[in-house]
Structures are given as structure tokens and as C-alpha cells.
């Protein structure tokens, strides 16, 4: 017997298989997306944890260098009788450049019987090494002075961080006693040798070596005192980390650090104490001092800096989720169609099917727009400068420690050169002081108080801008140029000169030309570029970001943006420094004449143009109220006109004309707002309305003129009414994929 399968059954079977396949593909693709993203996050987490462990090892070695220096000096002083001049010379020669201070504190009358106390202390003060005698300032042997009494009583150790009386800063110190024998050959402490680091030094090491675009670092001592932190208010006084956690009600931070103090590396997820952003907290103990090095990784930075197979993470997220949504949508539409095809095609059934598909399209459209808004395209042509290390690589600058000037250094003859050889093996820690043999580097920073987009898509700006000139010849003209400015006012409000360092601060008000493209409106992210040139175009001058002027430099922390600044209709996504490379094709007249012709004297392509970028994302609430609601009303009016077209007869033409002119007025308002910069994403919806108006007029006339077209005459133009919302919404979904995928 031969069975003949009806065509409808074959079609339904095919639809069922396709629906199942789309559902499986949607689930599988979403699972793959989650797997790849989770793999990336775990990879970043592992890399970050390894980075923190390496930083802890390096920082531990840096702090640990206090030990051999102090012990060697103590051995030299304790093993021989030295004069006052020799001790002072020893301190000058033994103190490494990267140490804050090195000193000796003799016990009462241990140095000589004429003076009770003698405490030479060689330390850094405002960039200059000075030598003072602590014994002439105060009685450091008093019971309340723990930095002296603790090592005398308990032996060599790292003391509890304290506020230095002479230095005026918090000091982290290692001290070791040295001994002498009395007439009865009994050993007794003759004083201590102490070596210390200041909080400023620790912050500088962290900022120059480890700080980048991914968060911030801080250090907590074993006693719970904050030794380094980007917020200076925590390090200007002896602040306990428990005070910070109690003020922020952050128990996770407190518990994590308490575990790390016990010598165990820890990891936690918490809302950080600076901006409340969800962050990773990675803590590594320092074995030498039992301090804790903490790194806070702002998870939102993943959206800007990370890549997958050369693709930006937000683009990967957006495209993967959009594919998942579309597959689920198609599966739902086919499933709904299959279900309703099993019944009799009565008008109520058809209306239920059309409504179900329309609701599915609305949900998919909302999901696609939500994904596009949460994962925008951050594409930029700038070189993103993340840290000082980037500048080091970019300009070939030297990573070196600059010697600190000493106004009182006088080398005298010594008889302990051989004993100092061990100190020469302890090399200074390599701190980052930018110096280039090719370019003159000028640190430049700015702080924006007001920024606003104008109607003609220009940027109005009011900011403070400053520059530091270090050892710069007077022939170099001070100042800067804003090449984008069509209207600019520059007022110098600050000028300070301290030795070789000259500092300028200006108040700048300018209107800047910007190339703003609205193709993805309203799901667009704008990079507002503020390009800064040096005043002397003919010189090899490079402006570099003044990272030292900012507590945090990662984009999400909005460095250089006043917290009270805002742009109407937009929200700040980030701010950062970068470099543009633009070839202008001209020497700007900077050439000279030779015997045979002309020759150039400077490179004028401006290969390293310093730019400060402000990333902004449009506020969707404003767009929904101002643009989407009018479009929804127009679409609803058109549907009413279509449903009532048979009752209106030829009056439908007047109704369509009225809606048409209203649409034109709304469209013109929209184009004025976007600057008439070509056809953008949302503007296509107005074209859909025009097409819908034309389709309604055409279908209505064909029906009124009694053209025998089954598509139109069936049940009084029912098919056109059923297809109105699905076709319109499907067109919007299709355009969303074309523009935003």
C-alpha cells in the first residue's frame, strides 16, 4: 500500500524541524557565548592575580632593601669608632636614592660624654636630601617614642608606621640596634640604625610601575594602617582600613583584608570604596613586612579594554546576543505559525496569530535595543595610553632613577671604603622618570568643569589646563594650541617656579569642532576629542599625560571630569588620554633654503598629537520620550486608518494626508536634532511610516475600485490588516541588525 503524504503535513513537519533546529542553535550559541566570555574573564582574572603576585614580590623586595642597608650601617658603626664627620659621610654614601631616609640614633651619652643625644638623620625634603640632628630637636629616647624604644627593647624589626615629626609624612621603617661592650665585657645597645620609606615613595612606586587602566592599588600594614591609597585623605593621617570599611559598610573588604594579613592570598567580589563599582579585590601578603598589597579591578573596564580574537569585547557580546535573540525569535514565529496552522483559519484565530507574532517582535526589538545599549561600539582610532609604561614604550624613554640633589654633600676621606662594598651591591629600585633623548616631554593635564554639545554639533568647553616644564630652556615658548578651536579664550591663573621646575595653570574656554557621526542614533557612543599641540611646532616637543595629577586613571573613574559636569541627554562612559596620528601633508612653512633648494627643518605631521577623550553614551529615556513615542502614535493612527478604510471610503485619502504631513513635521524636527548628517538608524523608521502610508493608500484604492485581487478582497481587506504590525515590526528588527549588529 502506498501512502501519499499531503503537502500541508510535509510543510508542517519541515516547520517543526526548523523550529527545533533554531531553538537548539539559539541555546547552543548562547552557551558558546557564555563559555567564551567566562573563559576570557577567568583568563583576565588569572592574569591579574599573577600580576598582583608579581607586584607583591617586587614590592616586597623594594621594602626589604631597607634591611641590608640598615644592618650594614649598624655593623660598620658598631664594629669601629667613627667620628661625627665619618658617620655623616657614611649616611650620605649609604642611603640609596630611592630611600626616603637613613639615620642613626645613639643612646644617651653613647656617642660622647658631652652631648646626651646624637641622632644624624639623612632624609629627603621637597626633593632635596638634608642632614639634621634629631638629638637637637627632641628627646627621641622618651617612652612615648616607639620608633626608637621598640628596636632597643625587641631587637631589629619593622616598626608600626608612624607620622614623622621632622618629615611630616607617614613613615614605614626598619630599625636594628647596634651594640658595644662596657668595661666588664657586657654587651649593651648603643643606639639604632633606621632606614625608612615615606607614603609618598610607596604611592609613586605603585603609580609608576603598576597603576594602569584597570583599577587601583593600596597597601595595608599588619596593624591595619593604610600605607598607600589613591585617595590622599586616607594617607595624610594614620587611617585604619576598618574606618574605611565602617564608613562604607563594606564588610567584604574588611574580612578579605583580615584574612590576607594572616599571610593568605585572598580574592573577593565587592563594590569598591571609591565609586561603588563592582570590582575584584585581590590581596597578596608581603612576607618581609607582613603588609598586604591590594589590587581593585573595576570589572566594567573589561568592556573597554579586552579583546576576543582581535575583536573588542562589547562587539563580541553584542553580536553573540543578537544572534541568539534572532534565532529564538524565528523559532517562536515558526512555532506560533505551526500551532495556528493546525486549526481552522477563522478571523479570530488569525488575529491571535498576528498579535502573538507582533508581541514576539516587540520583545525581540526591545531585547536587541537593550543589548545594543549595554554593549555599544567603543571603536576609536586613538592610541589608548593606559599607564606610564605605555609612554615609556612609545617614546623610548629611559626607566631610570634620577639623583636627588644634596645641598650639603661634602665627601671626606674615610677608612671604611671596604666595608661599604656590600652596599654598592644593592641597586636602587628602578622608578619611572620619563626622559627621552629624541623628544622634549612636557607633562600636560586638564580638568573639565563644563562640556556641552551645541546645536551644530560643536563642543563647548570650560576647563583648567596645566603643564610642567622641567629643565626646559627659556627659548622654548610656554603654552599650548587647541587646533580644533573656532573660538577660544585662555587666561593664565597660576605660575610657579621651583628650581628647574616651572608650572603653569590656565583657564580655557573654547568651542571645538568635532566630527560627530549619528549613523547609529540613538545607540551611538561619541568620542569627544580635545587635541592639544605644543606652542612650538618647529621643536621636537611631545605633550604627555600628567598621570601624577590624577588619583585614578582608568576610564570608568572619569579622570579629568568634574563630578558636577554633565551633558544634556548624554551620560559619561569614560575619559582617557591618547595619541592621534595624522598626516597633514604640509610642513606649515617650516623649511629652510639651501644651496640647491629647500630642506625641511622639522617633522610637522604631528605623529603624536595628545588628545583627551571623553566618551559619552546617549540617554535612551530622552530618546524614547522625544522620538519613539511620536513614531508609535503615528503607527497606531495608520493602523486605525487601515482598519476603518472601508467605512471611510475615499475619506481615507484625507486621513492619510493628515498623518503624512504630521510625519513630515516630526521628521524635520528629528533631522534638525541630529544635524542632518545623513541617514541614521532611527530615521529609517520615518521611511517605514512613509511606506506604510503609501501602502495603505494603494490597498484602499484597489479595494474601493473593486480590483479582483484575492489578497485585498479577502474578508474586507483582512490580510493587509493582519500583516500591518508584523511587517512594520519585522522591518524595524531587520534595520536594527543592519545598523547595530
Write the layout of secondary structure elements.
Layout: H1 7-64, H2 66-79, H3 84-94, E1 101-106, E2 120-125, E3 128-133, H4 146-154, E4 157-158, E5 162-163, E6 170-181, E7 187-198, H5 199-209, E8 215-220, E9 226-228, H6 241-248, H7 251-261, E10 266-271, E11 278-285, E12 292-298, H8 302-305, E13 307-308, E14 311-312, H9 313-341, H10 347-374, E15 383-384, H11 388-395, E16 405-406, H12 421-424, E17 440-453, E18 459-470, E19 480-481, E20 485-498, E21 501-512, E22 525-534, E23 541-545, E24 570-580, E25 591-593, E26 598-600, E27 609-618, H13 620-643, H14 645-648, H15 652-674, H16 683-704, H17 710-713, H18 718-740
Parallel strand pairs: 3-16, 17-23
Antiparallel strand pairs: 1-2, 1-7, 2-3, 4-6, 5-6, 6-7, 8-9, 8-12, 10-11, 11-12, 13-14, 15-24, 17-18, 18-21, 19-22, 20-21, 22-27, 24-27, 25-26
Helix pairs in contact: 1-9, 9-10, 10-18, 13-15, 13-16, 15-16, 16-18
Question: If you had to describe this structure to a student in words, what would you say it looks like?
Answer:
The chain is α+β, with helices and mostly antiparallel strands. The chain has 5 domains: 14-45 and 306-374; 66-201, PAS domain (Beta-Lactamase), CATH 3.30.450.20; 210-305, PAS domain (Beta-Lactamase, 2-Layer Sandwich), CATH 3.30.450.20; 428-617, Acetylcholine Binding Protein, Chain: A; 621-740. 40% of the residues lie in helices and 24% in strands. Helix 1 (7-64) packs antiparallel against helix 9 (313-341) and helix 15 (652-674) runs antiparallel to helix 16. The longest helix has 58 residues, at 7-64. It is elongated.
